[in-house]
Amino acid sequence: MTGIYHAPNPDNVKSRTFAPGTEERALLKAALEEVSNQKVVIPAIINGQEVYTDDRFEVRAPHDHSLVLAECCRVGEEGLKEAIETAMAAKDAWEMLPREQRYAIFLKAANLVETKYRYFLTAVTMLGQSKTANEASFDAPDEVCDLLRYNVYNMDLIYNMQPKQDLTLMNRLKYRPLEGFVCAVTPFNFASICANLPAAPATAGNVVVWKPSTNAVLISYYLMKIFMEAGLPAGVINFVPSRGSDVSNYVLTDRRLGGFHFTGSTRVFRDTWKMVGENIDNYRAYPRLVGETGGKDYCFATENADVDELVTGLIRGAFEYQGQKCSALSRAYIPAKLWPEVKEKLLAEIKTIRVGDVKDFRVLMGAVIDRHAFNLAAEYIDSAKHDEDADLLCGSYDDSKGLFIYPTVIQVKSLNYKSFNHELFSPILSIYVYEKDEYDKVIDHCANSSKYALTGCIYTHDRNEIAELEWKLRDSAGNWNINDKPAGALTGHQPFGGARGSGTNDKAGNITNMFRWVSPQSIKENMLPFTDYRWPSMAEE
Ligand code: NAD
To answer: Are the C-beta atoms of residues 482 and 138 closer than 8 Å to each other?
Structure first.
C-alpha cells in the first residue's frame, strides 16, 4: 500500500425538471417508447450466469393492463440453495479485495446510473411502478446514486474509526464483513431501496442473496445488470426472483445466514423474525436483522398553522405516488377552527389533480401497484360511504384501463375508525377534526395510539407549540417534519427510518446502517512482550 484513498463526501444528484421544451423531457419520452416496445425475459442471475426457468410470470404496467413489459423466471429451492453456495464460494476473494477496489465498483455503478442509463431507468421506473416523471427520477437515478455513494463514504468513515494507541501496544479495529452471507429482500415501491439493500452489505464486503419484489422485478433486473457492468465479481450478489415463502424456508433458515436486509410490510418482517427466532439454535452466529417496514404517518396541525401551507402538505404528503411511500401521509388531526377553510381549499385543489397514464406528463398520480392494493383501497372507500363513523368527502376508483384509485378524503368521527389506524398504502387520507377542548386528547392519540412510528409532521408557526409537540410526540416517528409533509427524505440530509412496528430504525444510507454489516475485531499487538509473570506488588518488602 503506497497511499490511503479517502472516499468523497458525496453531493446529492441534482434533479431534472422535465418541463416542456427541455432536452431531458425529449430524452425521457424516447426512453419511454423504448421500454414500452420491448418485452424482455428476466432470468435469475446466479454466479454471474443467467438462469432461465419455466416457472414464469408476466410484468404489466399498473396503469395499463394491456402493456406487457416483461416476463420473469422464478427460481425455487434448487436455485436458492445454489445462490447461497455461490455466494459462499465468492466470499473470501470479495472480502480480501482492497476496500478501494470494492468502492470503485459501486461508485462506477452510480456513475452509470447517473449518465448512461439515466433516462432508461427513469422510464422503467415510470412504467413498472406507475410513477410520474418527477417521482421516478427522484428515485432512479437520483436516490439510487445517492445511496450507492453515501454507502462508500460511510464505510470509509467506519474503517477510519480506530482505537486509542499505547506506547508499547499497537491497537487496531478490523471491520470484518459478517460471517456467512446476507439475504436482501426488497419491496416494490422504490428502485433506490432495491439497489441499496443488496449494495450496502456488499459495500462492506459481504456476499448477498437478493430476492427482488415481484412488483419491481424489471427495475431490479436492470440494476443488477448495472452492478455487473460496473465490475461486480460473479457470485457476490446473486439475483433470485422467487416466492417469499421459499426465501423464508430455504434461505433464512440456512445456518450460514449472517444478516437479513429487508424493507417491506410489518407483517412479513415479523413473520421472518419469528422464523429466525425459532431457528436460533441452528445458526453459526446471531443473524443481524435489519428491517424498515410499515407506517401510519400523520400530520398534526394546530390553530397556528398556515392554511395554504397545510393544504399543500396534505395533498403532496397523501397523494404523490398514490400514497405508496412508506412515509406517505394517511391520518391528519385538524383543529375545528381551521377546518372550514382547510376543507374548502383541499377539496377544490383535489378537483384539479389529474390521475392517469404516467406517460401523460400532466398527471400527478398514476395507478396503484397491483390488484390486491386496488381491492383493499376500494373496500375502504366503499365502507366509508356507509359507515356511521365516517364521511367520504371525495374518492372513487376505476380499474377499466388500469388500477386507478382517485384521491380520497375520509372525515372520521371517531379516532378509532379503521381507516385512521390501519396502513392502507394508497391515496386515502383520513382526517379527524378536533375541538379546542380535545387538544390534549388528540396529542395523546397521535403520540401513543399507533403500532407504527415511521414519519410524522406538525403544522404550526407558534414556537411554544413546536417545542411542546417535539417533546410530546418524540417517540411517534423516526422522521419528523415541521411545516412540511411527512414524506421526502434526502440521503445524507434526513436519514430515514422508524421505530416501533416500523422497523429497526437503522437509517438507510447512514453510517448506522453500515455498522450492521460489519463485525469488528479488536487486534492488540504487544511491542514489548512481558517476560516475568510477577506483579511489582508481589516483591519481598
Ligand atoms: P411486502 O412485505 O408485501 O413485500 C416485501 C418483500 O417481501 C417482497 O419482495 C416480497 O416478495 C417479500 N416477501 C413476502 N413474503 C415473504 C416471506 N414469507 N419471506 C420472505 N420474503 C417475503 O411489501 P411491499 O408491498 O413490497 O411494500 C410495501 C410495504 O413496505 C409497506 O408496508 C411500506 O410501508 C413498506 N416500506 C417501508 C419502507 C421504510 O423505509 N420503512 C420503505 C418502503 C416500503
So the answer is: no
The three cell numbers of residue 116 are: 448512461
CATH of 297-482, one of 3.40.309.10, 3.10.129.10, 2.120.10.30, 3.40.50.2300: 3.40.309.10
Please state, in angstroms and rounded to a whole number, the distance separating the CA atoms of residues 186 and 463. Answer: 40
For ligand 1, pick from 72, 131, 209, 213 the residue to mutate: most ligand atoms within 8 Å of CB.
213
| Cβ of 210 below 6 Å from ligand 1 | no
Q: Return the C-alpha cell found at 497.
A: 427510518
Q: The domain 23-293+503-523: what is its CATH number?
A: 3.40.605.10
| Secondary structure of residue 323 in the 3-state scheme | helix
pLDDT digits (tens, 9 = 90+) for 39-82: 999 999 999 999 999 999 999 999 999 999 999 999 999 999 99
pTM of the entire predicted model: 0.98
Start-to-end Cα distance in the chain: 53
Query: What is the per-residue pLDDT for 393?
Result: 98
Task: Mark whether 194 is an active-site residue.
Answer: no
Q: What number does the ligand 1 atom closest to the CA of 503 have?
A: 41
- Angle, alpha carbons 298-294-63 (nearest 5°): 90
